[in-house]
Amino acid sequence: xxxxxxxxxxxxxxxxxxxxxxxxxxxxxxxxxxxxxxxxxxxxxxxxxxxxxxxxxxxxxxxxxxxxxxxxxxxxxxxxxxxxxxxxxxxxxxxxxxxxxxxxxxxxxxxxxxxxxxxxxxxxxxxxxxxxxxxxxxxxxxxxxxxxxxxxxxxxxxxxxxxxxxxxxxxxxxxxxxxxxxxxxxxxxxxxxxxxxxxxxxxxxxxxxxxxxxxxxxxxxxxxxxxxxxxxxxxxxxxxxxxxxxxxxxxxxx
Length: 254
Ligand code: NDP
Ligand code: 8X3
Fold this sequence. Notes:
Blueprint: E1 8-11, H1 17-28, E2 32-37, H2 40-50, E3 54-58, H3 64-72, E4 81-86, H4 102-130, E5 133-138, H5 151-171, E6 176-183, H6 190-194, H7 199-206, H8 214-225, E7 235-238
Parallel strand pairs: 1-2, 1-4, 2-3, 4-5, 5-6, 6-7
């Protein structure tokens, strides 16, 4: 790690929700932030708020070439990447598998799976050269617990969890930590995206219930990233205060 440069975190999906809260918290603690997402206007606004140590990069994580170009062209004072937070992701729709839209399924796979692996693969050489680093991937409780309509979204998050553990197996002797951070119900733009802009429907998801705030997840990312190097947090699952498990759905054929 180049100790002359400030510590830097690379965050995908910093235009909203967990990613934006994470950028603000690391910035407050003196880190440089590389903030990414598709909405350039939001990135510019956030960069103006964060000040000098912030680099906005607008690209689609699912576009392999754009990911490579963005990372290959990082300015030298921003390539001391200590933490990669693979956070960009989305759910689209809540229909059963027999009614779901295949374009939505493609987009979830392109973003949640391909976006994460493209970003990881391109950042890894920088971390390995630095001899240190931490990759924190945003999974979800949906990757461990099935629910109706979770189909491909939950499948992508199960991938995040297993990919994270496998990455750790590959990287343990290179000094690189890996964590799968798996939140439950959190109020961000997540449901607005899932319900394709229907804000009323989205707000019903969080009404009258204690949910996770973006700042809670930013706190978790910061805590994970600042643990001493003699430990690695493999997986961390965080549910909302008012969220727990359902019984199995058993069909009665009477
Ligand atoms: P938000 O919708 O608030 O934020 C999602 C972020 O992902 C945005 O910054 C968005 O930026 C970015 N993003 C989406 N698609 C792309 C893309 N193709 N390329 C680049 N960036 C993209 O949701 P959250 O903050 O809630 O979600 C963050 C992560 O946490 C996701 O991976 C989500 O699956 C996960 N998660 C969310 C939970 C929740 O209940 N909210 C619970 C568990 C996990 P832009 O649109 O500008 O590209
Ligand atoms: C988002 C949490 O429970 O809506 O990953 O799938 S949930």
